[in-house]
Design brief:
2 helices
Length: about 40
């Protein structure tokens, strides 16, 4: 899943960068999307 790989790479980078509301929102959206995928795969 290309989108998933991009989100994982982005979140790894954003953890290093000082958090801002936009970055926190992006991380939250990425984690939320991962949880949805897990639930769909069950």
């Amino acid at each position: 899943n290309i989108i998933g790989e991009i989100l994982e790479r982005e979140t790894r980078q954003k953890v290093i960068i000082p958090p801002t509301p936009q970055l926190i929102g992006a991380i939250g959206a990425a984690l939320f999307a991962q949880e949805i995928k897990k639930n769909i795969n069950k």
